[in-house]
Amino acid sequence: MDATSVQRHQQTAVPSGGALAVRIPGAAATGAALTYLSIHLVQEAYAYDDRVCADDTSVCLTPWPVLSYAASFAIALVGLIVAYRLLGIRPGRTVIPPTLLLAPLPLIAALSTVGMWPAVVVGASWAASVALTAWRPYRILGLSAAAALLLASLIVVHH
To answer: Cβ–Cβ contacts within 10 Å for residue 127, how many?
Structure first.
């Protein structure tokens, strides 16, 4: 048995109850913090755009709203990579992309219907549910929770 097969086996092994009790709330806290930061960054960019363009009667566009989305994405990507590595949520290649790329759907639905703080809770729930999919015994639970959030958000956005 070589070192890579041992390492691969350890990554898929189910963590103990104590380790899981740290990893999933850690993923939820990371999701909540990144959600709050992203929403705040985008809202501030649009507020700045509104202030600058308030007196202008012609078309007024600043680059900050567009750049705020790119900055939010980059900050969330780096934040997830660092936090999940510290928490031991692996493999990152299978957990981070769905966490990052599908999160806007439930976040937009929550933000448009109930406001910022419930959207932060949705971001935490999203990150925790996707993080659960890293371990085989909890994969169905994590996928079910993520699917419920996605379905609810699609119903809210398209209704």
So the answer is: 31
Q: How far is CA 15 from the centre of its chain?
A: 22
Per-residue buried b or exposed e for 1-32, using 16+ beta carbons within 10 Å of the residue's own CB: eeeeeeeeeeeeeebeeeebeebbebbbebbb
- Whose tokens are 């959207």? That residue is 119
Sign of CA dihedral 146, 25, 77, 114: positive
Domain residue ranges of the chain, discontinuous segments joined by +: 19-158
DSSP string, 30-51: HHHHHHHHHHHHHHHHHHHHHH
Q: Are 103 and 125 in contact (CB under 8 A)?
A: no
Residue 26: strand, helix, or coil: helix
Please tell me the pTM assigned to this model: 0.86
Sheet strands (E) in 6-158: none
CA dist 123 and 59 (Å) reads 34
At 102-139, the pLDDT tens digits run: 999 999 999 999 999 999 999 999 999 999 999 999 99
